[in-house]
Amino acid sequence: MQIHHHFSLRSYNSFGIDVEARSFADFHTTEDLTELVTEQLHPGKDQLLILGGGSNMLFTKNFDGWVLHNRIKGIELLREDENHFYVKAGAGENWHGFVQYCIAHNYAGAENLSLIPGKVGASPIQNIGAYGVEIRDIFQELEAFDLFEKRGRTFQLADCDFGYRDSVFKKSAKSRYVILNVTYRLNKKPDFHTGYGAIVQELERMCVQELSIRAVSEAVMHIRSSKLPDPKQTGNAGSFFKNPVISTSQYTALSNQYPGISGYAAGEGFTKLAAGWLIEQCGWKGYRKGDAGCYPEQALVLVNYGKASGKEILDLSRSIIDSVQEKFGIQLEREVNIV
Ligand code: FAD
Ligand code: EPU
After folding, report:
1. 333 versus 197: which is more confidently predicted?
2. What digits encode the pLDDT tens for the residues 258-314?
3. Which ligand is nearest to the CA of 233?
4. What is the pLDDT of residues 1-16, one digit of tens each?
5. What residues are labeled active site?
6. Do residues 58 and 338 touch, judged by C-beta distance below 8 A?
7. What are phi and psi of 209, to 5 degrees?
8. Which domains can be identified in the chain, with CATH numbers?
9. Which of 61, 42, 1 is nearest to 338 (CA)?
10. Centroid of ligand 2 to alpha carbon of 101 (angstroms)
11. Does residue 70 have its Cβ closer than 6 Å to ligand 1?
12. Ligand 1 centre and the CA of 46: distance in Å?
């Protein structure tokens, strides 16, 4: 196992922020990880960051500790029953690669989550979601390494406490577990989710005659590519903020004042607002200062046009939070992990 010191993380985060990790190592197996956390790191003394694809991170300074980069690979069909396939994927597998594998094998359920950057291991951390589907809809179980107890643990669906861009791994279990693999429960018979966003229009534009999981995946990919910046060209981490969930009575009051406001039902008595709309109304869409900016096609996405520092992006996010609070009385919460 190779260990690097003063290692640049620039190509390990989708914002393309140039910071250094004091120490850095890849782990390809659970044994590699165990060796690193028992023999190299000093528990309780060294800071530790588990890194997947770095597509939901904003580094604001050098990391004075260990960055361990997950490279555990492998995709395996564990079993099947009348309705489902149970497929286990190593945490270091590329997420979109896994979705494509499912489509190629006719395992249905992950197609709406096409083209989300990052790795399998991070998919349960914020319960990734897009176009009406979230990880919790296809989650069976995961295996993790407990850094406190130095042993393995299995998490079932009920243990994960999944919510909108949320899970136990962002709350009480934060920083305690390294996810090693995830088993997904995929459908034999597709249950198409085409009601969200512009999927139906895109399928029509594609002249799709017979609906298939491949067609839905392609429609989602087209829509995403048309509005989200490609991190290979413009640094970003997708939505920088969560869409705020407010009471429906507060929403009704706001929509009387701002008839154009976008809101969607989010459980009884709650409405989810489109944060992109709030940010756009505050005049930020297309804003740029130096190399830090608010993406012209999607105001919820902050971008690094080249050499912005993490601090510049963070400062921009603070100004956006303040102005949305001032205009609408709504507190935006960051989705991206700030390090
Ligand atoms: P990283 O950024 O490396 O890590 C994210 C967090 O998870 C960190 O706290 C890290 O420590 C922790 N972590 C990572 N791997 C492990 C592990 N194995 N064990 C324990 N902790 C771990 N997200 C959505 O939900 N929906 C979208 O539609 C979406 N679209 C995006 C579009 C773009 C262009 C970009 C750049 C990002 C988008 N994202 C979206 C955000 C991002 O893709 C997801 O959050 C993704 O799951 C992050 O995966 P990663 O491997 O890059 O995680
Ligand atoms: N909108 C604007 N102006 C903007 C952007 C959006 O007015 O600049 C309004 C429009 O009314 C639009 C609505 O917001 O109809 C929703 O926009 P969009 O469909 O692009 O989705 P989003 O709510 O901005 C969420 C997720 C995305 C996910 C898409 C599709 C969050 C924080 N973001 O974005 O996830 O891909 O829906 O499901 O929930 C991510 O988490 O990184 C991410 C990209």
Report:
1. 333
2. 999 989 999 899 999 999 999 999 999 999 999 999 999 999 999 999 999 999 999
3. 1
4. 899 999 999 999 999 9
5. 165, 239, 335
6. yes
7. -85, -45
8. 3-70 (3.30.43.10), 75-187 (3.30.465.10), 235-338 (3.90.78.10)
9. 61
10. 26
11. yes
12. 23
